[in-house]
Amino acid sequence: MSKAFGIGYNPVEVAKTVEKIVATEIDGEVARKYFGFASTKFYGGSATGYVTGCNLSCAYCWSWKANKTFIGSFYKPSVVAQKLTQIALSKKHVYIRLSGGEPTLVINHLLQVLDYVKAFGRSREMLFILETNGIMIGYDKLIAKKLSEYSFVIARVSVKGCSEEEFYMITGAEKSFFNLQLQAVKNLVDNGVKTIVVVMLSFCNKESFSQLIEKLTAIDTAMASNIELEYVKLYPNVLKRLCKKDLKPWIAIDPIKKEVVKLDEFNKLCRNRA
Ligand code: SF4
């Protein structure tokens, strides 16, 4: 994976710009744009709200179009919490989650959603999975401190690549921001938030992967048992974008055939598209 490295964008600055577009105040609450709510099969069944807007531009993001075009409508946290808990109750799900974009943008919205879940008396029977790229939690450690007040939150930090260079290739962001993802893990662990690290392995090499594991276990020796590996899923629009960017996973998953796709096969798929 040899590529020239550009400067890349600053995802903290992008976050500030995106927040202005995807947040507004309604009746004294911080509302955020969502492009849907659904019961999904993730984690064995979870009530899911799809937030609009992200501060990264991962080459394999399935929701990139929604995030770039800012589709959706504004929802108050009280309504979001109501929808999520109602879906979970009706489907007997334990898990509720936000997906689609980055939930830590507009942090006061997220905190208000958590407050309402608690106020509705659901925080003992439900778990909130916070799927995050970690950038803002690494940038502002107060976020981790605030999250620690909600014992029903489990953070899943999705680390983009295993090194600064792989992070840049995947996201196009300035490579040093990779380290904010690791800082996020540290901030969460230091504040006692249950944390799982999800590593996108498809673009890592052996060396960068082992270095990442060393860094994560240096943060917390118990972290080794809380690391999950993820492989890029070649949905048609993801395949198209990876081929166009010449970004090649050494291993991927065909989500339709449910098969493993190795590099040779991936190259063939790209050639067939051309
Ligand atoms: S961090 Fe997640 S939502 Fe944001 S671009 Fe990457 S994959 Fe998409």
UniProtKB/TrEMBL annotation:
Tell me the protein's name.
Answer: Radical SAM protein
Cofactor(s) recorded for this entry are: [4Fe-4S] cluster
Pfam families linked = Radical_SAM
One annotated GO molecular function: lyase activity
Q: Where is the Radical SAM core domain?
A: 41-274
User: Per its UniProt record, what InterPro entries does this chain match?
Assistant: Aldolase_TIM, rSAM, rSAM_sf
Keywords, A to Z, come to: 4Fe-4S, Iron, Iron-sulfur, Lyase, Metal-binding, Nitrogen fixation, S-adenosyl-L-methionine
* Family listed: Belongs to the radical SAM superfamily. NifB family.
Methyltransferase is among the record's keywords: no
Gene3D superfamilies on file: Aldolase class I (3.20.20.70)
* Pathway it works in: Cofactor biosynthesis; Fe-Mo cofactor biosynthesis
